[in-house]
Design goal:
This protein folds into 2 domains: 32-64 and 254-326, no CATH class; 67-245, Alpha-D-Glucose-1,6-Bisphosphate, Chain A, domain 4. The protein is 55% helix and 13% strand. It is built from 10 helices and 6 strands. It has helices at 3-36, 38-66, 72-76, 102-110, 123-126, 212-223, 225-240, 247-274, 278-296, 301-326; strands at 90-98, 152-154, 160-167, 171-175, 184-191, 197-205. Strand 4 (171-175) and strand 5 (184-191) form a beta hairpin. Helix 8 runs parallel beside helix 10. It is globular, with a radius of gyration of 24 Å. It starts with a helix and ends with a helix.
Length: 328
């Protein structure tokens, strides 16, 4: 007997049959639980998706997003502002290489802020309602180059920080108002080889869920801060190197990110509504994977869009199949 021609196909056939039997058993057991304990069944359905998502975020996504672009030496290196919050709940160090000197990078950092030069990122969100317009600045603005320690740094229309330290062509620190462990954002420029610069961002943040607004800000910091900071670093790089991406590319990327989160949440709703079946569970896990990949992996925008469209198709097919299955 030829091993590859006889034995391997036999195992494959047995595997397919086993999966079908397991899937049928899952559907049967889920139907029994759903009929006897509908709330328990829905809770179990959500839990079966959220547990692997939580594991994937904590073990893979979070370590990656906290250190995006940074070297091991940069992560370990002390930075100005570390002493302001010695034991943060959230500590992130990210970095990027820029083809330009620290003196060329510095003015772009100093003028950042809502109602100022913007944040060079997702302007549709970050600059909404800004008196300076929707688009982040693509030039140095002289009136935003004379700040001193103690001046306000507007982060949004409702959130402000202050300049704690400004060391020209070296670093600046934004300081939050929460005591005794205030949030700090440090932006530092380090000379690199051949006239280039390493721009390093460090965020030290302690959670203070004392109000709905504070809780919402801390949720954003935990799960989406890296998206904003990564885009800021890239935006500064593009401006120093005079290679600024069109706003429509920003918007496509932004809506793709938003869309994959919405698709994941929709899959959870479908799972809760239709109950735990092989189809709804598989669709929920797939939607979760696509969301995590788009938000936390270096996925190109075109691939992110393709994955999002695939998830939409899977949701539609699953919904149609479950409706047909539910009909008497």
């Amino acid at each position: 007997m030829n091993f590859h021609q006889e034995f391997i196909p036999g195992l494959s056939c047995m595997g397919v049959k086993s999966l079908r039997i397991i899937g049928a058993n899952i559907n049967e057991r889920a139907t029994q639980i759903s009929g006897a304990h509908p709330l328990l069944a829905r809770g179990l359905a959500i839990l079966t998706v959220l547990l692997p998502v939580t594991f994937g975020y904590l073990e893979l996504c979070r370590p990656y997003q906290l250190h995006w672009g940074a070297t091991a030496a940069e992560i370990e290196r002390p930075m100005p502002g570390d002493e302001l919050n010695a034991d943060p709940s959230f500590l992130a160090t990210r970095a990027i290489t820029i083809e330009g000197s620290p003196e060329e990078v510095w003015p772009w950092l100093l003028q950042m802020g809502y109602g100022r030069a913007g944040f060079y990122g997702y302007d549709l969100l970050e600059n909404a309602g800004s008196p300076e317009g929707m688009r982040s600045a693509d030039e140095i603005i002289p009136r935003f180059q004379n700040f001193v320690a103690g001046d306000v740094v507007p982060i949004s229309a409702i959130v402000n920080m202050t300049f704690h330290t400004i060391e020209s062509n070296s670093h600046l620190i934004w300081l939050g108002s929460d005591a005794p462990n205030p949030g700090t954002f440090t932006w530092a420029v380090y000379p690199f080889d051949d006239g280039r610069t390493r721009l390093v961002s460090r965020i030290r943040w302690s959670y203070h869920p004392t109000s709905i607004r504070a809780f919402a800000l801390e949720l954003f910091t935990e799960f989406a801060d890296h998206i904003a900071v990564r885009k800021i670093l890239q935006g500064v790089k593009q401006r120093v190197e005079r290679n600024i991406e069109p706003m429509w590319i920003q918007n496509v990327e932004f809506f793709t990110l938003l869309g994959t989160l919405f698709i994941f949440l929709t899959a959870l709703v479908l799972l809760c509504w239709r109950g735990l079946t092989w189809r709804t569970w598989g669709t929920g896990v797939a939607a979760a994977g696509i969301w995590l990949a788009n938000w936390y992996a270096p996925v190109p925008t075109w691939l992110g869009m393709l994955l999002a469209l695939s998830a939409i198709g899977a949701l539609f097919v699953t919904h149609r199949a479950e409706r047909a299955f539910a009909k008497p």
